[in-house]
Amino acid sequence: MKESSVHLRPLLVIIVAYLLGSIPFGYVVVRAKEGGDIRQTGSGGTGATNVSRRAGKTAGFLTLLLDALKGAAAVLIAFWVLSAPAVVPSRGATLQTSAAWWVAAAALAVMIGHIFPVVLLTRYVSLGSIVAALSIPILALLEHEFVSPHSNFAPLMTVALVGALLIVFAHRENVGRLVQGRESKFR
To answer: What DSSP state is assigned to residue 90?
Structure first.
């Protein structure tokens, strides 16, 4: 494994964590249940409390669970990627200490993504969801090339690509509104 690819691991982990945090599960849950936009209700937030008020306790609980899972997933991914044998610790740090700091940074990045999602740049939640979906195969490829090559990469990449395309397909109406300039923006 090249040393330059080893140094990309922490960056990859932080990007993945931030993108996971940017997934607005409250928006997705309310949209799926009612077809409505949670951002136009109550506080305008996509969190579990606002979702509960709009779509009920079950929807609020599901939002809370999914938000917690994205945080846990970011930390587990960071731990898995950074605990791989090729991680080179910074000068004076042990392997465990260096990885522990980057895992902690990933936990912070997922929280920052949740509070300040990538969609705030354009204020289009749907665009954020589409970008996050399309980043999955890209991140899988980067992980394969620079972090840890997969012996069965073709099935992994196939699932990543098909999954991303399915998510984009599910957002086809949003894409149409984005192209036409009629998509709702985050307030």
So the answer is: P
